[in-house]
Amino acid sequence: MSETEDRKAASRSDGPPDTQINDGTRFFFDQTRDAVPVGQSPDIAPSPSDAKPPKPHYHGHRQRLRERFLKGGANALADYELLELLLCMAMPRGDVKPLAKSLITQFGSFANVLAARPEDLQKAKGLGDAGIAAIKVAEASAQYLARERAMELPVIASWEQLIDYCRVRLGHRKTEELHLLFLDRKNRLIADECHQTGTVDHTPVYPREVIKRALELHASAIILVHNHPSGDATPSRGDIDMTRKIVEAAKAMEITIHDHIIISQAGYNSFKTLGLI
Questions:
Q1: What is the DSSP letter of 206?
Q2: Are 265 and 233 in contact (CB under 8 A)?
Q3: What angle do CA 101, 106, 108 make, to 5 degrees?
Q4: Which of 24, 117, 230, 232 has the fewest CB atoms within 10 Å, i.e. is most exposed?
């Protein structure tokens, strides 16, 4: 080999570059040095393009909402803010204030949003399954709380709590439902069951089915409750006729019909108060 070729061979190295250390089995890279761009000193500040993006305009808003709610309760927040706080827990990213306001506008109120059917909520732009589930859990929680309070005392002795429960249960429904509240001998609530859906004028209510269910539950008394989605809680002729038939059937089995309550968003009416029972 010539002298020139020897110098060329010597200049070629099979070893690792200066940034690597060979331990005989693998190369270890100096991560700190590799992280610095070639030709730039580690002390040089990053360019504006490498800086963190600015925080969104709603940064910190959720925390402030939570603090206001925890200090002042629901009264410290507007309806849309209460809904916004609820949606925040199901939708951890993004600004949900526009969605909360849109839902309040679409359904009319916070309570109406909670009572809305899932299929109607699915039509709302920007609301996914997580948000819908959070809304329906909130509705179910309100119903459970109202029901527990109604069960604390005999129903007849806790009339206001019973009315509150009926309003939460039926006041915002868009379709008419007839519910039967079955009571024991001490007038405590045994069960609340939806007996039928649809206007009683058009869907027949069979008194024998009502009494049969009361006997199965060993109930001593019944309170009938149904809603008027129209907002007018005035009893119709169909309501009155149906109630009288159930009262007569119940007497034969020594079951008391305490009342028939009609619930609407605007208020309620009691057959007993009206002298219809």
A1: -
A2: no
A3: 90
A4: 24
Digit-coded pLDDT (tens) for 80-94: 889 998 898 888 777
H or E stretch at 50: none
Q: Which two tokens stand for residue 24?
A: 């005989």
Q: Which backbone phi and psi does 57 adopt, to 5 degrees? A: -65, -25
Residue 74 to residue 139: CA distance in whole angstroms: 15
Q: How far apart are CA 263 and CA 82, in angstroms?
A: 25
Q: Decide if 229 contacts 236 (C-beta within 8 A).
A: no
- How far apart CA 50 and CA 55 sit, in angstroms, is 15
CA–CA separation, 218 and 128 (whole Å): 43
Q: Which two tokens stand for residue 54?
A: 């600015």
Tens digits of residue pLDDT in 38-69 = 555 555 555 555 556 555 555 577 788 888 88
pTM greater than 0.70: no
**Can you tell me the distance from the alpha carbon of 274 to that of 109, in angstroms, rounded to the nearest whole number?**
30
Q: Which of 244, 167, 249, 147 is nearest to 200 (CA)?
A: 244
Distance CA 123, CA 106 (A): 11
Under 8 Å CB-to-CB from 255, ≥6 apart: which residues?
A: 211, 214, 215, 219, 220, 221, 222
